[in-house]
Amino acid sequence: MIFLDSAGSSLPPPEVLDEMVGHLRREAEVGGYRAAAEREDDLERAYPVFAELLGCAPEEVAFTDSATRSWLTLVDSIPLEPGDRVLISEAEYGANAVALLRLAELTGARVELIPSDEIGQLDVAALRNLLDERVKLVSLVHVPTNGGLVNPVREVTEAAHEAGALVLLDACQSAGQLPVHAADLGVDLISGTGRKWLRGPRGTGFLVVRRAVADRLRPRLFDHSGADWAGLWEYRMRPDARLHELWEFGVAERLGLLKAAEYALELGMDQIAAQVGERAEHLRTGLAGIPGVTVHDLGERPSGIVTFTVDGLPPERVKDLLWDKDIVVSVTSEGSTRFDMGRRGLSAMVRASPHYFVTRAQLDEFLTVVTGLR
Ligand SMILES: *Cc1c(COP(=O)(O)O)cnc(C)c1O
């Protein structure tokens, strides 16, 4: 098996799998409550571990069941009024875009597009021209789902903050692939998933709310773990990011996610980023040299996601042919990133996303197979 889909849903290390299966077995022996109580210390440790991974404080971390859940929770907490503006990048992910359209309908806020520059990443100068005091949120995708670039987060954050806007970073494709450091990047809010580059389980996500902006949020609904039911007719909201969590969650998944984060930290995020970058570069160069193959990646700083098309073969067909040979890639299509794909006149691309566990021999084997496709 040659696995090139860590941007879709990666392979968990054995440690992660063992942790999850072990906990499910324990739940079957003693019940979910007691099994969770036995792991209370580990469940608590998840906060400082993710704080280390994401460059923030443990009180700024919360866990959810997906990146999209994190994103929706955060965006729904931002007070928006008629005439307020929300700026998004051309790489905005489908789930976020649809939610924002709905939110605009509900609040009377306007969603506007920040153009990309000539190399395809968010145009910071264009952003500066768009900013004014009505902009309440700048939503930025760190690494787009459909192509090999890394957006300039720090520059965006500085510009947005000068105008008083919050910055929400979609780190779904960067967490576990690159260092994502909230403090260094200066972002206010972060959403991310476990199942992609972090090699955690499906159905897991996390979010960050920086302390400095917490009281600018107005979370709408929470339960009796997010807020204390202080008296018959009273509640008291938690002061930390865990306000955004529900009482119920998959404990096996949470423990698996924790293991995955510890695994990544042990390897070192800088090391991981270097290994992924090297592999993606090898693929990009190799694919670009194959007649009839077009590489579509943009940007100044490439990521671990390599996108391409093969003349005369629809991307779905390429994916199926590769799956038949036990090479796992995925297809990224228009519905995930309509602004970017539309601008470039693309409806779908094959996406290969090699993690550090893919060998050079496997990459070369993949290139040979792609060469033979036509
Ligand atoms: C995958 C992805 C998401 C959504 O992640 P879920 O785990 O499906 O919630 C959000 N943003 C980007 C950039 C993605 O690639």
Main pleated sheet:
7 strands, mixed
Low-confidence segments: none
- Provide the list of bound ligands, each named once: pyridoxal-5'-phosphate
* Widest beta sheet: strand line-up: 2-8-7-6-5-3-4
> What is the straight-line distance between the termini?
22 Å
- Helix/strand class: alpha/beta
Helix content: 40-55%
- CA-based gyration radius: 21 Å
What does this structure look like?
The chain is α/β, with parallel strands linked by helices and 374 residues long. It has 14 helices and 15 strands. Helix 5 links the parallel strand 3 and strand 4. The model has no long low-confidence stretch (mean pLDDT 97). The site of pyridoxal-5'-phosphate (PLP) has 11 residues, from helix 4.
Concise synopsis of the structure shown:
The protein is α/β, with parallel strands linked by helices. It has helices at residues 14-30, 32-38, 40-54, 67-76, 94-107, 124-130, 153-162, 182-185, 211-214, 251-267, 269-288, 315-324, 338-343, 360-373; strands at 2-3, 61-64, 85-89, 110-114, 135-141, 166-170, 189-193, 205-209, 227-231, 234-237, 293-295, 306-310, 327-328, 330-333, 348-352.
Describe the secondary-structure layout:
Elements: E1 2-3, H1 14-30, H2 32-38, H3 40-54, E2 61-64, H4 67-76, E3 85-89, H5 94-107, E4 110-114, H6 124-130, E5 135-141, H7 153-162, E6 166-170, H8 182-185, E7 189-193, E8 205-209, H9 211-214, E9 227-231, E10 234-237, H10 251-267, H11 269-288, E11 293-295, E12 306-310, H12 315-324, E13 327-328, E14 330-333, H13 338-343, E15 348-352, H14 360-373
Bound molecules: pyridoxal-5'-phosphate.
